[in-house]
Amino acid sequence: MMKKNLLSGRDRELAEMAEQYENARANRQSIYLDAEDMADLADWYSVRQKREQALEVVEYGLKIHPENTALLTEEAYLYLDDYDTHSAREIANLLDENLPDTKILQAQILILEEREEEADRLLDTIEDKEEIDTMINVAYMYINVNKPDKAMAWLKPGLGKYEDDEPFLGVLADAYYGVGELEKATDTYNALIDKNPYSAVYWFGLARCYFDSQKYDKAIEASDYAIVSDDEFAEAYLLKGHSFFFLDNDEKGLENFREAARLGAVSQCFIDTFTGLSESGKEHWEAGLEHLLKAIDEYEDDAQISLPALYANSGICFRKLGQKRKASHYWKKAHELDPTDAGLYLLEGRMYLEEHLFDKSVRCWKQALVFAPTAQTWHEIGISFMEYGYMEQARAALEYVKKVEPDFHDINEKLATVYLMLKDKDNFMRYNQLCKRPITTEDLEKVYELLKSENKEDLVEAMKRILDALQ
């Protein structure tokens, strides 16, 4: 499917059409719909994670409209959703190879076959590249294969020219989001909502922007508007669940994940994984382990769940319950399933550091750096050192992050905090002035007074020493 945003009113038309279609099928009655309507209806189902219904609509439509190009093209995209390039190519070969839509379909097949240069050359043969429908369709194709930078390149000629056009704005918003320009994406989704305030897709797009900007309350609010517009929009429940999770409201998170599961967006394995991680996060090790082991039993090549991570987190629970032999067995299984997963070694090293098994932690993290020698890996190591009080080691790791990636997210804030804890006034001042919101002495004094009011004597004394060092 092309996964296009829908025009004002079209989404509601298709919702009504879906109801008519489902009622007719339930009553074993025939129903006639235009071929283009049936292709759009199949796409409508597919966007909502209802692939079986999408395929059924296409098959039914082809019985009424044999060899219809729109329906055949939609069928090909449904195959591509499953990375079945062979079946998609068989369909594409039936279509007029000179049509722009056929070239775009063929290009996506080539990209999924890792023949991107051929795809680019094929698209270059399209004559009117600046025709609005062509720009939109090519851009969606590139977004679908996770190449939003190329989508932006195709849309560039339309900037300042078609920005009052809703379909153009729809793909532009998705492209901005894809390349990480969240502020522009937010503005564009808001402009789309002004045009069509009842579009679940636009509200969901806005919710994604807020989520990625760590504005979880706003992400929940936008997801709610998406759900009001379409109460079966599964991805909105899923995003809302993740937002509650990051706000430490696991109960609400699970409630929304269950709704997403009811609508087919996630599996029971996902629900048990989330519940297990939530329970273990509360140090309810037995309950956490019970759900994680269920998730392992339920696992069926779930794209949203990492089986090695399930074994690893089960290993943590076993270790917390004093069953070190079983813990070692589960960790061994995790590494066997994915020997090059740096994240597993980061997690294992953190587990050892919590037990103050410093040498074991370092060995794990050295292995993580073999497989992922990146600023992100060093950052994770530095944060773990910080959280468990190894400030000198945290300083070294985070300074390396600053060296190799000077604009790494919040690195100045992290280094300012480390040097504050080390009572290193000069370096604290150096990094603090680079922060988006520098810490002031007044901020620290407020924390000091708060700790005093809560009778946290050890922390009060530590804060007093920090304040004295900064005088």
Question: If you had to describe this structure to a student in words, what would you say it looks like?
Answer:
This protein has 471 residues and is mainly α. Among the domains are: 273-339, Serine Threonine Protein Phosphatase 5, Tetratricopeptide repeat (Alpha Horseshoe); 341-436, Tetratricopeptide repeat domain (Serine Threonine Protein Phosphatase 5, Tetratricopeptide repeat), CATH 1.25.40.10; 440-471. The chain is 73% helix and 0% strand. It is built from 27 helices and no strands. It has helices spanning 10-26, 35-47, 51-64, 69-81, 85-92, 100-112, 116-123, 132-144, 148-155, 166-178, 182-195, 200-212, 216-229, 234-246, 250-262, 268-281, 285-298, 307-320, 324-337, 342-354, 358-371, 375-387, 391-404, 411-421, 425-432, 441-453, 457-470. Helix 1 (10-26) packs across helix 2 and helix 8 (132-144) runs antiparallel to helix 9 (148-155). It is globular. The protein starts with 9 loop residues before the first helix and ends with a helix.
Features:
Serine Threonine Protein Phosphatase 5, Tetratricopeptide repeat; mainly alpha; 471 residues; 73% helix
Radius of gyration: 26 Å
Q: Which structural class fits the helix and strand makeup?
A: mainly alpha
Major sheet description: none
The CATH top-level class label of the domain at 341-436:
Mainly Alpha
**Would you identify the regions where 5 or more consecutive residues have pLDDT less than 50?**
none
CATH topology of the domain at 341-436: Serine Threonine Protein Phosphatase 5, Tetratricopeptide repeat
Average of per-residue pLDDT values: 90
Number of strands: 0
CATH architecture of the domain at 341-436: Alpha Horseshoe
* Terminal Cα span: 63 Å
Name of the CATH superfamily of the domain at 341-436:
Tetratricopeptide repeat domain
Helix proportion of residues, in percent?
over 70%
Number of helices: 27
Strand content: under 5%
Name the shape in a single word: globular
Elements, N to C (H/E): HHHHHHHHHHHHHHHHHHHHHHHHHHH
